[in-house]
């Protein structure tokens, strides 16, 4: 029997660098083809709800991930599963589907130049203007935070940059649509792979090694508040206010242009006047929004609300 025909074969794995590996074992459903019309049902529904758009070349990936979940539930038809997700008023099955379909790749100190732009160039300017206004509140938003590496990196960098940080009211608001990654983020336990670009002095100072895993220290955790937010949920997004700095890196790359426009508009409303918006280093707002000013810093680019 060829590996492709093996009934208990594992055909796909969802991996995050922090070591959360979901092996997708499949049974009889592995053999079932996902018809284009059923793929389109899922694709359009996911797009409408989350902004993520799966082009037809992602059909195989979607099929594998759906087939795994359907095997667990004992559902044989893709259409039956679609209607189950659509009409599940608890939202639990939708969440299960999102946990499977999101790409959660991340790591600590991802793209160091951008992070230096944040800590060495943007943060001092923000703190200076706050000092002038006698304002000690600092709100930073890590939108699409995955398993927590980005907001925890920001927390560590803030603590290095502001030795008297305890005198400030600092909040790092971290959210994601996928509950599974938020659970991992709250635990704050990581394998060394996700620390591969973390400077050793940060590892020594902000992590505790237990066996072969690294626990993030409580003082780093203390500044970060995790919650589940879908960036396309206009009601929840309208409550996100007074942000000094927004990080939304490597999230909207999976979105349609229309969804990107909606999300960027929400970020604009969430930022204070003069607030900063970091996107992934390979991303751009070209054709998406003209509302922000592009600021050229020594270490990279950042958008600013004028
Ligand atoms: C590739 S990770 C990026 C993590 C981190 N920002 C970074 O750059 O390392 C993208 C994250 O965006 C989340 N995401 C996708 N669509 C979302 C949505 N509509 N609302 C909130 N989060 C979403 C995914 O669940 C995933 O964890």
Characterization of this structure:
This protein is of the alpha/beta class. It folds into 2 domains: 3-101, Chemotaxis receptor methyltransferase CheR, N-terminal domain (Chemotaxis Receptor Methyltransferase Cher, domain 1, Orthogonal Bundle), CATH 1.10.155; 112-305, Rossmann fold (3-Layer(aba) Sandwich), CATH 3.40.50. It contains 11 helices and 12 strands. The protein has helices at residues 36-50, 59-73, 78-87, 92-101, 112-132, 149-161, 179-187, 200-206, 218-221, 234-238, 257-270; strands at residues 10-15, 21-25, 137-143, 169-176, 189-190, 207-210, 213-216, 224-228, 243-248, 271-279, 292-296, 301-305. The strands form 3 sheets. It has a 7-stranded mixed beta sheet with strand order 8-4-3-9-10-12-11. It has a 3-stranded antiparallel beta sheet with strand order 5-7-6. It has a two-stranded antiparallel sheet with strand order 1-2. Strand 1 and strand 2 (21-25) form a beta hairpin. Helix 2 packs across helix 4 and helix 5 crosses helix 6. It is globular and about 60 Å long. The N and C termini lie far apart (64 Å). The chain binds S-adenosylmethionine (SAM). S-adenosylmethionine is lined by residues 50-52, 102-106, 110, 144-146, 150, 176-178, 181, 230-232, 249-251.
Write the layout of secondary structure elements.
Blueprint: E1 10-15, E2 21-25, H1 36-50, H2 59-73, H3 78-87, H4 92-101, H5 112-132, E3 137-143, H6 149-161, E4 169-176, H7 179-187, E5 189-190, H8 200-206, E6 207-210, E7 213-216, H9 218-221, E8 224-228, H10 234-238, E9 243-248, H11 257-270, E10 271-279, E11 292-296, E12 301-305
Parallel strand pairs: 3-4, 3-9, 4-8, 9-10
Antiparallel strand pairs: 1-2, 5-7, 6-7, 10-12, 11-12
Helix pairs in contact: 1-3, 2-4, 5-6
